[in-house]
Amino acid sequence: MESRVTLPEGRYGSSRARPLARRWKWVLTGVGLLLAVAIAFVAYRNLGSAPIESESTAFSPVGADAVRITFTVTRDEPSRAAVCVVRARVLDGSEGGRKEVLIPPGESTISTVIKSSGEPVTADVFGCSYQVPPYLSTEARPTE
């Protein structure tokens, strides 16, 4: 015993919703997949392992206004030159000095002296990059 209620036709509109056209479903699915791939790529580039990692292995004072730091650099491409920024810290924790250090291809252990505005108590590696500024590059520059 099935009872169906029939509504007046012009008063309430169609009783079933119109589905999206089949091609619009495919277009929206494609756009969603492209968006998901773009998000995954950006996340991999930003959250994946760093191409250059550094670790401070030793530091020692060199007079009252300088400190020597020794650090190791691990690169995914050891044949490429890199640059690392090292810094000296004074007693209150503020930065007393900073220096950019060229890391030649193939080298992994570096030692350098950082001048400081105050008496340094520690030194650390701020960060490293493959983007070596021209003034640090050892490659021959074209004459102008």
What does this structure look like?
This protein has helices at 9-12, 22-47, and strands at 52-61, 66-75, 82-90, 95-103, 109-115, 120-129. With 144 residues, it is of the alpha+beta class. The protein has 2 domains: 9-47; 52-136, Sandwich (Immunoglobulin-like), CATH 2.60.40. A 3-stranded antiparallel sheet has the order 1-2-5, with no helix packed on it. The chain has a 3-stranded antiparallel sheet with strand order 4-3-6, with no helix packed on it. Strand 3 and strand 4 form a beta hairpin. Mean pLDDT is 84; it is low at 140-144. Pfam families: DUF4307. It comes from Kibdelosporangium aridum. InterPro entries: DUF4307. The chain crosses the membrane at residues 26-44. Keywords: Membrane, Transmembrane, Transmembrane helix.
